[in-house]
């Protein structure tokens, strides 16, 4: 312990409430402003993750239940989850919709070819959102996404 | 009356927080999440922010630098609960200053079982991902505003898990039990230079 009279947490408390500083509202606003500056980085990240997801398509299509397929599926889940978390913090509802939908696919579906097609369709939708081809509010986005995914799934299946 | 006690009397909107003297370590396997943490915690005012992707790196930072608080994801990049395992290990370190470090456990998959597991591993706060800057702030603020006694009882080592003050019909012996490090009275005058 750094000081015999103070427990570690009491020491932190004394440092934080030393009479200086700013209010909760000011500090949270400062944090939100700095997080907001990462929006461009986030868009690049979303494109990168969309491209990375596409690289997993082959393993998943071959056999989602094999060792390689399961590992690819786990990796896809991790990347998608990361992107979803960041999309919520950066307020990108369209990406939130797509990543939420893809997570559900990755967690609930074991049919390999169909899962691989869904992965591809979602990754394409992500690229379209970042490139500005898919626009609209969240409800509109859900409709667009549904239509896009249906078209992609049917086209690939044909 | 100490400044910390004076702050207690103020309404939440009037309280002034200064995290500049503190350093915080964040461990999360996602590089983009680490960027977000860094900016959010920087805005909140932490003086030093260390970011690591793995528990092993986090241990190196703790060995080389002063760390006052930790934010750690439950799972690593392989979806293994390495964050929770590390928390259990940390609470058993022989160095009191390290063993009692406040730890915020973050997770994107929140089930009651996972929250109980994190609580029983010795967490101070649980942060649900995706988090807002406001919820991150409140997790950090709760640790300093409402410090919990650190207890070593039976198999459990960590901050007191009681969150509710329920009446008891017997003498209260909790503060006299061996293994309890109480949240000591605030004595800002005794806080020596170089304590950080």
From TrEMBL, chain A:
It comes from the Bacteria. This is Uncharacterized protein. It comes from Roseiterribacter gracilis.
From TrEMBL, chain B:
The lineage of its organism: Bacteria, Pseudomonadati, Pseudomonadota, Alphaproteobacteria, Rhodospirillales. Transmembrane segments: none annotated. Pfam families: Response_reg. Keywords: Phosphoprotein. One of its GO terms (biological process) is phosphorelay signal transduction system. Residues 23-144 form the Response regulatory domain. InterPro entries: Bact_response_regulator (IPR050595), CheY-like_superfamily (IPR011006), Sig_transdc_resp-reg_receiver (IPR001789). The keyword Phosphoprotein applies. Gene3D superfamilies: 3.40.50.2300. The keyword Lipid biosynthesis does not apply. This is Response regulator. The modification 4-aspartylphosphate is found at residue 73.
């Amino acid at each position: 312990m750094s000081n015999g009279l103070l427990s570690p947490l009491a020491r932190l408390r004394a440092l934080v409430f030393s009479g200086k500083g700013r209010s909760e509202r000011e500090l949270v606003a400062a944090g939100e402003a700095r997080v907001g500056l990462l929006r461009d980085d986030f868009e690049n990240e979303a494109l990168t993750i969309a491209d990375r997801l596409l690289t997993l398509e082959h393993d998943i299509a071959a056999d989602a239940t094999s060792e390689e397929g399961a590992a690819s599926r786990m990796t896809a889940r991790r990347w998608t989850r990361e992107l979803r978390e960041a999309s919520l913090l950066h307020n990108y509802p369209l990406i939130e919709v797509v990543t939420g939908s893809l997570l559900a696919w990755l967690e609930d579906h074991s049919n390999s070819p169909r899962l691989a097609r869904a992965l591809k369709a979602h990754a394409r939708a992500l690229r379209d959102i970042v490139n500005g081809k898919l626009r609209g509010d969240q409800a509109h986005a859900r409709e667009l996404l549904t239509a896009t995914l249906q078209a992609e799934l049917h086209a690939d299946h044909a | 009356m100490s400044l910390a006690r004076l702050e207690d009397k103020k309404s939440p909107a009037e309280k002034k927080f200064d995290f500049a003297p503190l350093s915080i370590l964040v461990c999360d396997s996602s590089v983009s999440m680490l960027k977000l943490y860094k900016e959010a915690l920087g805005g909140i005012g932490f003086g030093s922010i260390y970011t690591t992707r793995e528990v092993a790196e986090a241990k190196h930072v703790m060995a080389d630098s002063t760390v006052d608080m930790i934010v750690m994801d439950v799972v690593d990049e392989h979806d293994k609960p390495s964050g929770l395992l590390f928390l259990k290990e940390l609470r058993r370190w022989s160095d009191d200053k390290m063993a009692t470090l406040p730890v915020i456990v973050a997770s994107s998959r929140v089930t009651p079982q996972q929250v109980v597991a994190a609580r029983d591993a010795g967490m101070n706060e649980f942060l649900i991902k995706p988090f807002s800057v406001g919820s991150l702030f409140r997790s950090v603020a709760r640790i300093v505003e409402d410090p919990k006694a650190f207890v070593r009882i039976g198999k459990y080592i960590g901050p007191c898990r009681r969150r509710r003050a329920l009446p008891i019909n017997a003498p209260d012996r909790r503060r006299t039990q061996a293994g309890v490090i109480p949240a000591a009275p605030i004595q800002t005058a005794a806080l020596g230079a170089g304590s950080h």
